[in-house]
């Protein structure tokens, strides 16, 4: 099957990614959380636990390159341009880049969702250490996500959406600048090695 033509919103169940939310744990629980788990490990646990997440036959989730390509999970091609800004002045040059462009366009929704939920519920975006127990913190995070999904259906706040879109653009610009200076440093190291 030609994935470039198959990649569509009709068969895409959603996008999977992770985001950081500050949680305070007791010293006795810290080893369980230390370093946190990678997105791919969390997904593996969700797919293999006692009541696993089920991916409907013929459907898929979009995941980033940090995940393994497997049935029901579609990753971008590695070694090809991926981020939307990389295509702003230069259209895709081949089928793999076209696939990555479509993948990034659809998957961008998850970054936007994380931004909106954190804007809407500052309690989970705060850098201030929470003062609730870890179980209550989990309940708060889950409640914020459930409320976010409900509110997006009944009252999508256009101001928050616009703010998050602007932040995503500014973050891309910052990362480009940071990446450029890092690449210059790496080039200098290679030349002097």
3D architecture notes:
It holds the Pfam family DDE_Tnp_4. Its cofactor is a divalent metal cation. By secondary structure, the protein is mostly helical. It has one domain. It has helices at residues 3-6, 30-33, 39-48, 95-120, 122-125, 134-154, 158-192, and strands at residues 12-15, 60-62, 73-74. Helix 4 (95-120) packs across helix 7 (158-192). The longest helix is centred in the last third of the chain and has 35 residues, at 158-192.
Brief digest:
The chain has 193 residues and is mainly alpha-helical. It has seven helices and three strands.
Key descriptive features of the protein:
single chain; 193 residues; mainly alpha; 3-stranded parallel β-sheet; 7 helices; 3 strands; 54% helix; globular; disordered N terminus; disordered C terminus
Topology at a glance:
Elements: H1 3-6, E1 12-15, H2 30-33, H3 39-48, E2 60-62, E3 73-74, H4 95-120, H5 122-125, H6 134-154, H7 158-192
Helix pairs in contact: 4-7
**Shape category:** globular
Beta-strand segment tally: 3
| Helix-strand string | HEHHEEHHHH
Strand order of the largest sheet: 1-2-3
Domain count: the total is 1
